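Technical annex B. To support the medicinal chemistry partners, we prepared a structural model of the target in complex with copper (II) ion, based solely on the information shown next.
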Amino acid sequence: LSLLPSCATKQEPLLEQRLLAEFVEAYPTASNPNGIVRSFDITAAEVELPLLDGKPLRVWAYNGQVPGPELRVRLGETVRVRFTNRLPQPTTIHWHGVRVPNDMDGVPTQSRPAIKPGESFVYEFTPKDAGTFWFHPHIRSSEQVERGLFGVLIVEDPAPPAYSRDVVWVVDDWLLGQDGQIVPAFNTRHDLAHDGRWGNHVTVNGRTNEVLALRPGERIRLRIVNVANGRVFAPDFGGLAAKIVAVDGLYVRTPFDASGFELAPGNRIDVDLMAGSAGAAISIEDRFLRSRPRRLAEIRVAGDPVETPRFEPPTRRTVPAWTAGSEVPVHAELALDARRGGPFGIEWTINGVAFQGHESATGHTGIPLVQGQFNHLRFANHSARLHPIHLHGMFFRVLTRNGRAVDEPFFRDTVLVHPRETVDVGVVPVDEGSWMLHCHILEHAEAGMMTMLEVG
Ligand code: C2O
Ligand code: CU
């Protein structure tokens, strides 16, 4: 762990003051509960479902459905989830991207162990941000998420923009064997030596043939969530007018063209999509692997035209530019690398350490972050593989890639670090606690690429 001292020169406090000032309005410190409690019951259990092209598939599911139930609440409402574990393994629910109280984060610790088979637990929190979030287990996740445990949590604005429709696409891939069932070998050497487990079937909302039927003139909010263990998607909208208005839940400063965005495991985008006029079917393709585009879904525009809702796309004007933040001394550098060894034969490490606390995150020496201050972190990928680095409990901004300043007009909770790439990010943690930082390629995480950020 290399913690570089932030040696104070005369100008730096000024710069840091400025960065903080730019941040203050960016997102709220506290939640603002309005007294309404939205209760949900969720049970995780094994079940057989007609998925992909409709053949029965044995999966692990929330409430017998894949994707799991879509939880929709409004900002200010309190979410209460009575969760029961009917799986053959302990599990938890992690609320990806949601700034929850530290002990509701679903990371197993000594004081809040995983939920054993047959047991129940009540998760309760009031989201602080509106946006597109998701939930999934945070123990043995490379197996549990792959088997079908994931769902979407949407926190709506107090007054949502007037889209014709709000549509969710959960994108995923599945590795099926000859028998048409999920290959039960997890964390294989092959997956660990590569970018995790990439499947042989790509699905949208659990189907290989998802069709979205739109009427001419419709303007929709399309929320895309990547729940795959390892696969990165770069959706191409086949010429439809498609602008990204939110990344990882939060609105962007300025909407931008959606094509080419790298949606890594964990990432979400909200797309402002215009149906245009009636016409042929439009194939929505994943072009992350440029030589091998894959069909994700189809959009068909047909029927009587509707009037296009006209409004300025929602934005978050307070997303700071922060490019100057790269001049602030690096607070902590995280070297990402692999080596032989460990229970799977390959370990993924952060600063030479493979995280050992998968069953309980207690007892690991984390990286201290200063609450309410600008922290400059560096992710240095020394390996030849992809690492989508995800932070719990906070949003961050990308400052540089390979030393070159970038001004992405948005916050993230997950950033894809390419092979041999160095990505610098700036973050102002406002929520106290021990927050996990890990690669969202779930096999890499399982094999050690995890650590804790200590905010306090
Ligand atoms: Cu979606 Cu710690 O993860
Ligand atoms: Cu990784």
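Notes passed to the chemistry partners:
The domain at 37-156 is CATH 2.60.40.420 (Immunoglobulin-like).
The chain has a mean pLDDT of 94.
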